[in-house]
Design a protein that fits this description.
It is a single chain. It contains ten helices and twelve strands. Strand 1 and strand 2 form a beta hairpin. It is an alpha/beta fold and 311 residues long. Helix content is 42%, strand content 24%. Helix 6 packs across helix 10. The strands form three sheets. Strands 3, 4, 5, 6, 7, 10, 11 and 12 form an eight-stranded mixed sheet that branches.
Length: 311
Amino acid sequence: MLSVERMRVLHAIAVNGSLTGAAEALQVTNSAVSQQLSKLEREVGQPLVQRNGRGVRLTEAAELLVEHTGRILSLVHQAEADLEAHRDAVLGQLRLSAIATAARGLAPQALVSLREAHPALRVKLIEQEPDDSVPAVVRGETDMAIIVDWAESTIPIPKDIMRAPLMEDTADIAMPTTHPLAHRDLVDLDEVVDEPWISWIGGSICDTWLHGMLQERGVEPDIAHEAEEHQTKLAMIAAGLGVAVMPRLGRGPVPDGVRLVQVQPALSRHVYVIWRADAARRPAIRAAVRALREAAVEHTLAVPEGGARAC
């Protein structure tokens, strides 16, 4: 009889493209992956992978087995969820990934609430961008993911993935206090489109959105600098090196030399959490959604219109 655990290893190899990637995803050693793969090959009586440079290529037999494994793992997840639902107990381990701003602005309060209300539940938080977190949820490596998309640039959600909205996150324009528009409470977007921008890392979801938003207004973006961390951007703005779109979620303290100005039309992004449909009955999933929604409400109430400003 085929071993489900060994089939899980083959599935991880297929998803990650190498034995090393599978070992990292499964949190085991490369040797353990190789041993499980060898045993599975003996069980099926034929080779399952072929070396391909630094990675591996699946044989036709392996591809067939991986297809069946995906369905089997989905049934296992559903069985686990049904058992938890039957006990109606919030327990076990929950792996939650989140974009950096949600990891700062929403996750801490939600995790504290879950720990106090459900001490038998262990939640592990992983900071991760949607490009990585969405596939991780699909593969079952992560149970839930907090992701965002901008109003004009939505992220495609694979089938069999469920989602729940958490909040709308409005963004302001951060500019040096020496900027001619820094004294204003509200600026029109067309007044700043030609500015040198401090964007996110090139190719990221938010960077792609910024380019598209400016190009839709007939402007070829002047990207002066790229930085991922908000505090890095704010330090660069304080030094007079450009302006930036600055979402309010997880923004943190604003240094001297920076002014946050509201913009019209408003720039906003949708923040939501996703999980696999076959795990939807898990009480832990439902409890986490409630805790995240409560944290989102409190965050929205705590941030004044226009966000924090500094001069």
